Amino acid sequence: MNENTPKMIITKIGLKEWDLIGHIMYPNSSILIVHVFALICVVLVFRSYTNGNTAFATYYLLLGIVLEGFTHLARYNRLKANRRFFEQEYGDNELVLTYTFGTDGFKVHNELSGDDIDYKYESLIGYKENDEYLILKSKERQYFIISRVEADAEELLDFLKEKLPELVAFK
């Protein structure tokens, strides 16, 4: 990518892409601490049961189930709300975003609303790649989904890493 020439990448976002963004925003790894507490509850269940205290064993068992259950339910509800937001905002339409990458930052143009938003490269903190998309994450927890084919054609990730060497992949 020539540094002096702004590059434009157009990405179309439908429900499939929006669901992908939701799964990235609310990953399973963020609930690792809950799994640790649930595991502690399991250990306490066995310890209480072997000491003959079935009341505490039952309490710890229920606590572990509640911890795991509510965590998965909360994640499911966030993903469902994320999808509902997209359906309310855009219906069956695809959201078409045009990314223009320049020397100091990039601009995102929303084709449906006509809005243009400028960002500095310094606002980016990470990226995630899969077969279809390159997802960029900002400090403000905004996610930018970009067509992987177009990003690769423009060598976008290499360009961004030159601009921002501390840019790292996230899980």
List keywords for this structure.
alpha+beta, four-stranded antiparallel β-sheet, four-stranded mixed β-sheet
Please explain how this structure is put together.
It contains 5 helices and 8 strands; from the N terminus they run βαααββββββααβ. With 171 residues, it is of the alpha+beta class. It has a 4-stranded antiparallel β-sheet. Strands 7-6-5-8 form a 4-stranded mixed β-sheet. The longest helix has 37 residues, at 54-90.
Number of strands: 8
What is the oligomer described by this structure? single chain
Order of strands side by side in the largest beta sheet?
1-2-3-4
Q: How many helices in DSSP terms?
A: 5
Determine the fraction of residues in helical runs and give it as a percent range: 40-55%
Helix/strand/pairing category: alpha+beta
Order of helices and strands: EHHHEEEEEEHHE
Query: How is the main sheet built?
Result: 4 strands, antiparallel
What average pLDDT do the residues reach? 85
Shape: elongated
Q: Which parts are unreliable, with pLDDT below 50 for 5 consecutive residues or more?
A: none
Radius of gyration: 22 Å
Terminal Cα separation, in Å? 26 Å
Strand percent estimate: 25-35%
